[in-house]
Amino acid sequence: MLLDQERINSVFQKVERQLAKIASKPQPDHVHQFRTSTRRIEALLQELVPKQDRNQRKLLKELSQLRRRAGRIRDVDVQVQALLSLKAPQEATLKAEVLRSLAEMRAKREAKLLKALDKQTVRELRKRLKRAAESPEILKNGRNPFTVASQMLTRLIRISDPPREKLLHQYRIRGKRIRYVAELAGDRPEARQMVEQLKRTQDALGEWHDWLTLVETVQKHVRSEARSPLLAELNNITRAKFREAIAVVQETRSETSTKPVLITQAKGGRRKPVASQEQAAVAIA
Description:
Layout: H1 5-24, H2 28-48, H3 54-85, H4 92-116, H5 119-133, H6 136-141, H7 145-157, H8 165-183, H9 189-219, H10 229-258, E1 261-264, E2 271-274, H11 277-284
Antiparallel strand pairs: 1-2
């Protein structure tokens, strides 16, 4: 299934709604939704549109800058949430110190984001979003989302690196992009299956990365790592999340390599089962 105008409009409208929210008050949920909505536009334009026009390129550049600013706030929010979730009252003073530091950091990053979101910038972004959504080139020349997502996932699982931090980071970053492309395929069963699989992977990798980031933050505040019960607890949690993330990545690799996938052939519109995701990507390339 190729892109349709309703789905395209939905992607751009979500960013516009979240843009208005974070421009007034960057609440944690609004910041998170803005980042994911922006990534969906990037996936749509960069992966499915062979050649962006000037407005689309400008839009991508401006949204990327804002997403990075919002990402710095999001990094703080998830660390605060993780730290507050710890029930054990170990090193209450250190915990309070880290929370104060994170609160100060968030305030500074929020101020920078709000400064970048002045009224003129927001107004121009809305115009660019509307023009980009109405561009006839997306419908005319846009690539098939499921085809592209299948090829991207195949390239990802072909990476032969052992399941260590470097590989997990690649799956975390590239897996998001693949999922957002697959979502644009709509209700196609095999696309929904891919999205669900990638979401499980993304959730596990995201949790591991959040705890890992918190460990790095707490390390800056401790006098002696060997004597910090709080840091020891955080390291234990992070190692457990790391093992869970590896297991999910290995599951994704296994399922993607072996599960049959239905694809729509270019001629005749008939569906034909293909033995593996890799063969599917080759068949529809």
